[in-house]
Amino acid sequence: MKKRILIALLTLLTASGIWAQDKNSFVLWYNKPGTKWESERLPIGNGRMGAMLMGAVAADTIQFNEQSLWSGDNNWDGAYETGDHGFGAYRNFGELRMQFTGAGAVAGYKQSLNLVSGIYNSTYTNGGIPFQREAFASHPDQVMVFRYTAGKNGKLSGRISLWSAQGAASVASGNLLQFSGAMPNQLRYAAQVAALHEGGSITVAGSELVFTGCRTLTLYLDVRTNYKPDYNAGWRGADPLPQIEKELKAALHKGYASLRAAHVKDFTKLAAAARIDVGTTPAALSALPTDIRRAKYAAGGTDPDLEETLFQYGRYLLISSSRPGGLPANLQGLWNNSNNPPWASDYHNNINIQMNYWLAEPANLSECNQPLIDYIVAQAEPCRLATRKAFGADTRGWTARTSQSIFGGNGWEWNIPASAWYAQHVYERWAFTMDRVYLKNTAYPVLKEICNYWEDRLKQLPDGSLVVPNGWSPEHGPREDGVMHDQQLVWDLFQNYLDAAKALNIDAGYQAKVADMQHRLAPNKIGKWGQLQEWQADRDDPDDQHRHTSHLFAVYPGRQINPKQTPELAKAAIISLRSRSGNYGKNSNKPFTVASTVGDSRRSWSWPWRCALWARLGEGEKAGMMIRGLFTYNLMPNLFTTHPPFQIDGNLGISGAIPEMLLQSHAGEINLLPAVPAAWKASGSFKGLRARGGFTVDCSWKNGWVVQYRIYSKTPQKVWVRVNGTVKEVMAGTVKK
Ligand code: FUC
């Protein structure tokens, strides 16, 4: 009974969403339409498909995607050909093009994206008449909806066309536009849009629809391919068109108001499950459009609400690009307007796809983590084949090359510890959820198989220690044995395996074997300038500002090094991180500032990684500087992060790094406020962050001091908590002051 009340209370707190709806921190808004695709348009998505909206008054384009529209085939040889065949690429699906007639003097333009309801909105007056647009991508009903409303009867007129980026011809009939076709790799695709109007009329003109004198116009769009995430089915499933027709018919039957209500309920449930409050922005500043606030922040201003927006935006983007049943978020989430996008907009496994999912569990979006787990499982079989081909027919287990497609494609260089890094995600899902069925049926077999791979591959040195042979610290330095990134990843894999096996109480013999291998792994080393070595040889350059911080994996996202249990190594990690950020070697006497991180280190994803690293090392001030660095150098007006070009890892990554500043749970305890910068200390709170062990945590503070916290658990259990400098054991579910 008590348990039920606690769960009910939690549900009430997190699902109400009321607190969030009207707060400026949860809205992006602009006083002009978005012209440039990557930096100004606004994304919506339902996990499977999405669109980029510009909100233009006269000639409006809605560019749309579906995450399985890929060229290419299975490729086992590592070639990275990104055209029609070979590795392939993630492709643009098409555009809905709207041409509105009767444009007069436009005034009061505003467009916005609500990060909690998942509704896009724009309003303006044209010739004195108010106009409104709304758009959303519905997960429950699997359609995207775009609604145009005029404040006066008869004022919406214009034409609509549907364009396929793969060359299919569109046809118009009745109130429908559609195209369908097949890619050279025989992937079938189709799109259909139904236009409904109130007042006026819709007629067909060639391949277009013409709407005349309407009061409202509502477009329902569904797009699909026949992709099936199944190697044994040749990655192909049912023809997409019947499914689209079924979904559109159901959506039209349901009607706009019900579709909208179902979407808002579904989206808000996820979006409102966690939030942070790190201060209050003065009203005059928070009243400004998002692009202006970003520019002011980048120029050195403070704007805590905008930092909260960035956190929430990462959550919004994961909800919009990663839902159960679908593919994981790729290099651009799912938003792509090119047939030849940078790096094929693929799945890069030497930081990018992992970073995309750092937020999933800590920021309370566990269900959005499912596509990554499914992807790892679905790609395992083609990866086994590719691995055997490259490493010998009797190789057990699997790993992957750096670039992966959705058809088992493995491109570019082998990233030999890739599967060990994937294994961490597989394990962490269990660590956060404590879902034993998942652990037993899904996670454990993956972990064990990857351990088998390393059991066969590790090389024994004359002193009995074990090294990963022929590795490469991404993407830096020579190929050689015992690269620290690899050593750390294999250590992490073995630890995760051991914890999983212990929890299930199985395979005692194999546990002993893995424990022995872990014990014999050549350890981390501290080099001649006090740094954590990146290689076995002490060759690190203190002035090297390479973007990757691969040898710090053990600090974050790994758990081998931390200031309390391994203080010397943590100190060395701090030196290495300062050096990568231009604050060592010839610059060691200069202050560590946002600007000292230069050149190759200013990347979409390098700031979030370093933010999380500083947080794990207990340095809140520097973690805060990394957020500022991202805002200043690698964030665009629509708050997309840029590598350059646009790469979503930075958006999703920063929303995984920020929780590390507020709550950590990787070292056997829940640590509250482990790395809060001075600017956030005065007063703040978070709600709904998740901790390993199956906990949900709320906390508020004043002057850097925790004044209240609550730890919830589905089943009552004890947990160690570090709060205001003291460690104590508390019962989760009870309210502590
Ligand atoms: C990795 C990184 C690059 C880039 C690419 C997509 O290879 O080293 O910086 O993010 O992925």
TrEMBL record:
<dbReference type="InterPro" id="IPR012341">
    <property type="entry name" value="6hp_glycosidase-like_sf"/>
</dbReference>
<protein>
    <submittedName>
        <fullName>Glycoside hydrolase family 95 protein</fullName>
    </submittedName>
</protein>
<feature type="signal peptide">
    <location>
        <begin position="1"/>
        <end position="20"/>
    </location>
</feature>
<feature type="domain" description="Alpha fucosidase A-like C-terminal">
    <location>
        <begin position="664"/>
        <end position="728"/>
    </location>
</feature>
<keyword id="KW-0378">Hydrolase</keyword>
<dbReference type="GO" id="GO:0016787">
    <property type="term" value="F:hydrolase activity"/>
</dbReference>
<feature type="domain" description="Glycosyl hydrolase family 95 N-terminal">
    <location>
        <begin position="89"/>
        <end position="228"/>
    </location>
</feature>
<feature type="domain" description="Glycosyl hydrolase family 95 catalytic">
    <location>
        <begin position="256"/>
        <end position="662"/>
    </location>
</feature>
<dbReference type="Pfam" id="PF22124">
    <property type="entry name" value="Glyco_hydro_95_cat"/>
</dbReference>
<dbReference type="InterPro" id="IPR054363">
    <property type="entry name" value="GH95_cat"/>
</dbReference>
<dbReference type="InterPro" id="IPR027414">
    <property type="entry name" value="GH95_N_dom"/>
</dbReference>
<dbReference type="InterPro" id="IPR008928">
    <property type="entry name" value="6-hairpin_glycosidase_sf"/>
</dbReference>
<dbReference type="Pfam" id="PF14498">
    <property type="entry name" value="Glyco_hyd_65N_2"/>
</dbReference>
<dbReference type="InterPro" id="IPR049053">
    <property type="entry name" value="AFCA-like_C"/>
</dbReference>
<keyword id="KW-0732">Signal</keyword>
<feature type="domain" description="Glycosyl hydrolase family 95 N-terminal">
    <location>
        <begin position="28"/>
        <end position="75"/>
    </location>
</feature>
<dbReference type="InterPro" id="IPR016518">
    <property type="entry name" value="Alpha-L-fucosidase"/>
</dbReference>
<dbReference type="Pfam" id="PF21307">
    <property type="entry name" value="Glyco_hydro_95_C"/>
</dbReference>
